[in-house]
Write a structure and sequence with these properties.
This protein is mainly alpha-helical. It has a single domain, classed as Orthogonal Bundle (Arc Repressor Mutant, subunit A). The chain has 5 helices and 3 strands. The protein has helices at residues 13-26, 39-46, 50-62, 81-104, 109-117, and strands at residues 35-36, 66-69, 73-76. Strands 1-3-2 form a 3-stranded antiparallel β-sheet. A hairpin with a 3-residue loop joins β2 and β3 (73-76). The chain is elongated, with a radius of gyration of 17 Å. The termini are far apart. 14% of the residues are buried.
Length: 118
């Protein structure tokens, strides 16, 4: 899996991993019911602590993005709509935060929309 980690980012590494997996699903690179790397393999590939990858996998499992099958491994969920919804919600939140910043420097919502439409 190709996931870039920004070690200087304020975003925790486990969240970057989870976001990266979600983006790979939404891009069609990871398919429903496809097996993904084990925690140890993933950690070894990234050169990070396995506990960090476990935390990312726990988050994704809680959100029903991945499914762990006890003796077979970890797989992408059959229902990838949840991954799409999580990415959309994250992007919407970012847009809202940017709109608030633009309003704080004096732009109205109409001005913001006009500039976006250009």
């Amino acid at each position: 899996m190709l996931i870039n980690i920004d070690y200087s980012s304020r975003i925790p590494i486990y969240e970057q991993i989870a976001d990266g997996i979600i983006k790979l699903i939404n891009a069609g690179i990871l398919k429903p019911d496809e097996q993904i790397l084990s925690i140890r393999e993933f950690a070894c590939n990234l050169g990070i602590n396995p506990n960090t990858v476990k935390k990312a996998y726990d988050l994704l499992e809680k959100e029903k993005i991945i499914v762990r099958k006890s003796t077979k491994g970890t797989f992408i969920s059959l229902d990838i709509k949840k991954a799409q919804e999580l990415q959309i919600n994250k992007l919407i939140k970012s847009i809202r935060e940017n709109i608030i910043e633009l309003e704080n420097i004096g732009l109205s919502k109409d001005d913001i929309l006009k500039r976006i439409e250009k």
